[in-house]
């Protein structure tokens, strides 16, 4: 008779395989695919007519793998043309996808910063490297792909042919700065919104030397933008969307590669004024206050939809409209008084330090309820840019779904029920696919657990889980830990098997790196990857 301990050893085979991969030099984010097998054959592959629920809640990084699995005309790499999956996404990733959506978009946000500037006839230029293209576009415009009249987007390619950006911590920041300087000199452009990506992107990698280099690269290019703004008498606003490397260590000393709850800095260097250091702004605010502040500087009144308030002590709307306004987002640059484990404080940042010392500044809330998220949660780039552009607090999809689970309406959701019903009635498989994390901008295993409970309530006998891992803000070996938590939940419910685990680097691409997406596709459909057998004794060598 099999004991409970033996059962746990068998179901923890995937966790053991992940730890073996760690010992072999792999990391969560770039983990090569691991495939559960039975009698040498891959278990739970996606087959014709199966139902799939993609439970991620972010959007732009989920589009490519969804296209590959659902679009009959997909041609970026060879795919099965007859899969005909019953595919449901938790939220709408893209309106062009041929999928069901469990939690459709709420009413479109009206009168975002870009729209108001456009309606006023002002020309807006947005500039970022490709790693942050979605943030200055889709998210800053209220989670909308609409490009308004007079809105221009300049996307500088992020470095190619690098395994991870810690190999190139300067990324393309100098090229982004060059584009900003061109537009500062362009008299036709009234407002520039730009993003320096380095601190956030490199800060998610456990490499202190590269993280420091990223901070210093941003500071160096910030200095160039400050000089350019001063020479053209432009009004420069410098802020961030959330914190990252200013809290590099957890209390126990392990490295924190995730986002933080800390406020972000806001600096106003209004070189259009004779005495820019005398401008009066509030000492604190939140990200939703930035859009009303920009509108006031442009001589425009904020629309009724914007509930954020200007950071000026005395509202500036209609008074001395500035001819050139530059809003520069130092992505991931948070503020923390404590110097220990603070890479912003440890790095050489003479240009930011000079701005902070000489010009009016403020602290902005960039996490939790201030950016539409649950209380006491970290910020992220998506929520940050959304609120910078929206000028109001916007309830995020995570909160909507959490509330639906709490009040029970989640379990009667028609799109989710339909996918499960079709699997049961057609004697097909149900697949649950998504991020494996306690808390990520992409999703949470709490939503996966609710789907497993729903599948049990619907009377399904077999559910297969395909997980994407990537340690961002998680402690070492978090991928293995969360996979084992899922396996524990499956044992508790008597339903579900984790049959695929792959790093999010492969699964959640957004720049048409089709080789990465193809690796994920072939793992999900054909079972290509390292086989993981169910067994009681370890077969992995020590490394």
Description:
Helix content is 34%, strand content 16%. The chain has 543 residues and is an alpha/beta fold. It folds into 2 domains: 4-104 and 420-531, 2,3-Bisphosphoglycerate-independent phosphoglycerate mutase, substrate-binding domain (3-Layer(aba) Sandwich), CATH 3.40.1450; 113-393, Alkaline Phosphatase, subunit A, CATH 3.40.720. Strands 1, 2, 3, 4, 5, 14, 15, 16 and 17 form a 9-stranded mixed β-sheet that branches. An 8-stranded mixed β-sheet has the order 7-6-8-12-9-10-13-11, sandwiched between helices. Helix 3 (63-70) crosses helix 18 and helix 15 runs parallel beside helix 16. The model is unreliable at 1-11 (pLDDT under 50).
Concise account of the structure shown:
It contains 18 helices and 17 strands. With 543 residues, it is α/β, with parallel strands linked by helices. Strands 1, 2, 3, 4, 5, 14, 15, 16 and 17 form a nine-stranded mixed beta sheet that branches. Strands 7-6-8-12-9-10-13-11 form an eight-stranded mixed beta sheet, sandwiched between helices.
